[in-house]
Amino acid sequence: MPYEIHFDVSGTVIxxxxxxxxxxxxxxxxWRNRVYFLLLIDSLVAIMLDIATCYTNxxxxxxxxTWKKLLVVFQILTxxxxxxxxxxxxxxxxxxxxxxxxxxxxxxGCVLLYELPAIILSPVTRFVMYFGKxxxxxxxxxxxxxxxxxxFFLILGLYQIIKYSKRLNGQQISVSVxxxxxxxxxxxVQYFNPYLLITGFAxxxxxxxxxxxxxxxxxxxxxxxxxxSREAFGEIxxxxxxxxxxxxxxxxxxxxxxxxxxxFGMENGYYLVKEFxxxxxxxxxxxxxxxxxxxxxxxxxxxxxEAFGEIDAILDxxxxxxxxxxxxxxxxxxxxxxxxxxxxxxxxxxIQHVDAAKPRIxxxxxxxxxxxxxxGATGHNEIDFTYIDKNTIKKYRDKMTIExxxxxxxxxxxxxxxxxxxxDLRSKTFVGAESLIRLKGADGVYIPPSAFIPEAEQSGGIxxxxxxxxxKTCQFMKDADIESLGIKVVNVNLSMIQCMQDGIVNxxxxxxxxxxxxxxxxxxxxxxxxxxxxxxxxxxxxxxxAEEGISFALDDYGMGYSNxxxxxxxxxxxxxxxxSLVDAAEKDTGxxxxxxxxxxxxxxxxxxALAEGVETAETSxxxxxxxxxxxxxxxxxxxxxxxxxxxxxxxxxxxxxx
Length: 658
What we know:
Layout (H helix, E strand, L loop, with lengths): L5 H19 L6 H29 L5 H30 L7 H19 L1 H4 L3 E3 L5 E3 L2 H22 L6 H23 L6 H15 L16 H14 L4 E7 L2 H8 L1 H18 L5 E5 L2 E6 L2 H15 L3 E4 L7 E4 L3 E6 L17 H14 L7 E5 L1 H23 L3 E9 L4 E12 L5 E2 L1 H11 L2 H19 L8 E5 L2 H4 L4 H11 L7 E6 H6 L1 H13 L3 E7 L6 H7 L3 E4 L1 H9 L1 H16 L3 E5 L4 H9 L4 E3 L7 E2 H15 L2
Helix pairs in contact: 1-2, 1-8, 2-3, 2-8, 3-4, 3-6, 6-7, 7-8, 10-11, 14-15, 22-23
């Protein structure tokens, strides 16, 4: 027998091993996996038929020529399907099923319309192959076209990889290029040496490498819980988004995982959660459970009935504590109720993209929306069920808009400083002001600080905002000569995140000194919540800045986060009583007595008492009667831009000090 079949035999062994492993591991039902499976089967059949035809051509008698022709036809068909399937596999890596364009289908269809008749009719036409009168096998002129078509699909696949390289990672690109080069080389070698059967072996080696990298089943399995991973979720949802068909997500977040760990230890806690997800998957209709982050899981549902069926099954399942037997542990058995929040992300197709610049919602948006909702949910031992609807998406969209606006404002230092005058009830004049940071949106409307400050604190941008606020305040104080306007001190807000930074004292002092501002004209404001967060660190910062001549004011006092003894410990220059406490005092005699005693205590300790949020003359008069020193609120003046503040103060000075 003139054919060298050892390469084909090796290729057969490799693919059989791949098929065994493929069916041993938990299989992930993605389009790419299905195409890879077809590629494996077709390659195996092609190689085995390659070996079979070598033997039949060499040893079967001429009388069995019909069987020999039939076998060769099937062998040529299967070997020529391999490049086509590889091209489809490349498309499955770079496109969703719904992104298959007409051009893709036309190319594949035209080739199949040529190959199928050419190969099947070849025993009659002798175009691709034929047998001599002595039973010897020969290639016809059409075989060269089949070689060229094989190379064409390999090169076309490489073109797809290069064109859509941004959708692939480096490993995917490297392996795909290797497959193209290895199989192209094998086709060329076999064309010039048809008795050296090497194409099947090259294909098998390429498929083996693809399995270890692109098709690694462990990539789609979460090692902690045994569920499908975030990567697997991305594979599935990518096709669902593009299908334009109904698709809902049932989201489950375990809320008492920390309590489980504290009671049973981290290792046993992990084991209990793994058993929980295993049993949860078994009781639900759709057993494809995905862990997307933390202890947050998702079921993908294709219709509303399925979604609510899953929710009912989960709610029933959660009623019973999870019971787990342990081995090699001091604790032989764990029985504990798992608490969870449930969310229904209704039909994702109905939700417009959160970013108008993009055509539709994408995977990253879906996961970010889920993170947004989950992070805002309360963690407790009860079961909550919440809809993720269009209102939720609007809140998320607003959050993203604010984040982008904050980032852009930090980059361009486009935050504005407003100032709100502070009135002295004793001298009946304005003696100070609070510097307030303001941010204008793209629509020209100012975004409330309560909306953008928390976002900045989460992202770490509050550090840059603090720097910008202090610099712009100092620049204004220098340019406006505010001492001539009667302003003795300007309050600047300081965040806890700033206080936690190493070298913060030197950093702040360098900024103040660079503008030549008298140190005693700057007073940093910290909130009552900061006192409760990290008292020791805050005391250290206050002490160091006080040594530099910087005073401090306590903002929002009365919100309930710190006690009076702790406040007295810091010796603030000024204590600002929160508007909620002032409003409560006006409505209730008991609260008025409390406010009066608190102000008396503050004043006795040598600190000034300032009331925030004063809006009426009656409130101002009442506060003055109980000993309040300073007033800040809309009754006297609203926060205003720097230019307006100067105009306001000049007018005040002219009217009251002429």
